Amino acid sequence: MLSDVMEDYLKAIYVIQEESGPPVSTSAIAERVGKTAPTVTSMLDSLEERGLVAREKYEGTELTAEGETVAIEVLRHHRLLETYLAERLDYSWDEVHAEADALEHHISEAFERRVAEVLGEPAADPHGDPIPGADLEPPVEESAVPLASCEPGDRIVVTRVSDRDDEDLAYLADAGITPGTTVAVTDVAPFGMVTVTVDGTEQSLPESVAGSILVSPADRADDLDDVETTGAGA
What we know:
Blueprint: H1 4-20, H2 26-33, H3 37-49, E1 53-56, E2 60-63, H4 65-88, H5 96-103, H6 109-119, E3 145-146, E4 155-161, H7 166-175, E5 182-188, E6 194-198, E7 201-205, H8 207-210, E8 213-217, H9 218-233
Antiparallel strand pairs: 1-2, 3-8, 4-5, 4-8, 5-6, 6-7
């Protein structure tokens, strides 16, 4: 049996690999889990002994196949729980992350299946993060870029929003900027402020907030909707 902390580390390594690819540095893991580098190194020693991570001196850490499977299962639990809390218990999207963190290690496979069934096997959680399937294969990641990298005049659709800052999530919810929202970039200031138009209202976002939002071109999203509509009628 793995401890909750071990599972948290594996999940953190997986998410970092999603964002920037392997191998993952000790400092990146320490920042993600909020621990010191020596503490992280000690835990990585334990995970390596169990065959869950592979490490290369001066290079970093990478999940093994077994470690990846564990991480994906924890992520599936986490994202299903977030979705259940939001859709069935009326939690706001800035409240679900902490609750899911507390519960993700303690649900049975039977409970996981029931939650997924009740929700209709959702593809993504409230923040737009893909929910791994029951087969525990890595979820397909849609091509997306940070909002902060867009240019004035771009028309885009929000696909994912980082759930790491509750205050940012609450602010974005009030601004109407959530996954599936179409926005137009109206200005990118030299000092990093990004201004977008949402339903006719301008919203100015600090670069740190804009960098936490992933988007795709609105035309691409419209094309996907057209394909789904055509397929449904065939």
